[in-house]
Amino acid sequence: MKQFWFIGVSTGQSMIMRLFPVWAKMLGLSDTCMHGVDLPPGVTGKEVRQAVEKLLEDPDALGALVTTHKLAVWEEAVDLFVEVDEHASRLGEISCISKKKDGRLIGHAKDPITSAKAMGLILKKDHWKNHPQAKALVLGCGGAGTAIIEQLTSGMEGSIPKEITGLESNSERLEKVKNDLKESKNLILEQSDLSGKAAAEIMDRLPPQSLIVNATGMGKDLPGSPIPAGTEFSMQGIVWELNYRGSLEFYNQARKQESKRKLSVHDGWDYFLLGWSSVMEEVFHFELTESLMSHMKETANPLRNL
Predict the structure, then answer these.
(1) Structural domain spans, the chain
(2) What is the pLDDT along the chain (306 residues), one digit of tens a residue?
(3) Residue 282: phi, psi to the nearest 5?
(4) Would you give the DSSP letter of residue 98?
(5) Which helix (H) or strand (E) holds 57?
(6) Among 129, 213, 141, which Cα is nearest to 179's?
(7) What DSSP state is assigned to residue 78?
(8) In terms of pTM, does the model score above 0.90?
């Protein structure tokens, strides 16, 4: 049996374990099963490298999606890859591992593509142009958070937020992002603390129609919320929780204020579907057309509430 690996933290709890067999049948991949590799946050580089080595050596392992450890895969195992794409080189992360016909590894960073598509579903066309005072706050500057910040800073003047703030608790990661995005417009990158006080102070100053993103992993990989209890969201804010499962404290905080603060609250379901389908396109070497993505989403949605 061929295997499609999922390198994450609590892979058995992910919807993909139920969803992949449905997608596999639809795509003619019934000879392939999911294989979860659980590595806790903060795992040693040696263990991350060993996982990639096993994937390389196993001819039945066709490739992998990597979540929490995508930065570590780059840092600890990039020399095992014969090729990496432009996004992986620029961001210093690998979130997708595919194989050439001879079994050698190719590394991809899919967050820039996935975040752009997902953001297009959350923000209305010309949102920043129509709300020139609106700002953006991205909590967490890991792979996904950095990709979202890149998207927010990459537009022309007048089509980006008035100000974009990224908060990150890991000082080394923060310095890396500062260096990588030093030419970005309207960007402020600051250290956050475990109390969430810095985030709360910034949220208190956000104008209406601002975007607030939780890309910390808190509420899924880690317990809790990146903002203190009782923190108020900006009026008419757009709230994007990248998680779709877990304790979801941040998401629930926003939902409680949804009516009173006139919020638009989104979880990570579409981001999840776009991320997995994009990786499968690389691993199984098919073209993910718009119509195919629409069909994959239709088959996934009924499973969500089971």
Answers:
(1) 2-109+270-303, 113-267
(2) 999 999 999 999 899 999 999 999 999 999 999 999 999 988 999 999 999 999 999 999 999 999 989 989 999 999 999 999 999 998 889 999 999 999 999 999 999 999 999 999 999 999 999 999 999 999 999 888 999 999 999 877 768 999 999 999 999 889 989 998 888 879 999 999 888 999 999 999 999 999 999 999 999 878 899 999 999 999 999 999 999 988 999 999 999 999 999 999 999 999 999 999 999 999 999 999 999 999 999 999 999 865
(3) -75, -45
(4) E
(5) helix 45-57
(6) 141
(7) G
(8) no
Domain covering 113-267: architecture: 3-Layer(aba) Sandwich (3.40)
Are the C-beta atoms of 94 and 73 separated by less than 8 Å? yes
Rounded to whole angstroms, what are the CA distances from 132 to 127, 128, 177, 261, 262? 8, 6, 25, 20, 19
Closest C-alpha among 147, 143, 137 to residue 250: 137
CATH of 2-109+270-303 among 3.40.50.10860, 1.20.1070.10, 3.90.76.10, 2.60.40.10: 3.40.50.10860
**Total residues found in the chain within this entry:** 306
Q: How far apart are CA 277 and CA 23, in angstroms?
A: 9
Under a CB-based contact definition with an 8 Å cutoff, are residues 251 and 31 in contact?
no
Pairs from 125-130 (Cβ < 8 Å, separation ≥ 24): 126/159, 127/209, 127/238, 128/155, 128/158, 128/159, 128/160, 128/161, 129/158, 129/159
Sign for the CA dihedral angle at 266, 272, 275, 277 comes to: negative
Crossing angle of helices 143-153 and 171-180, in 10° steps, is 30
C-alpha distance across the termini of the chain, in Å: 27
Residue 179 to residue 191: CA distance in whole angstroms = 14
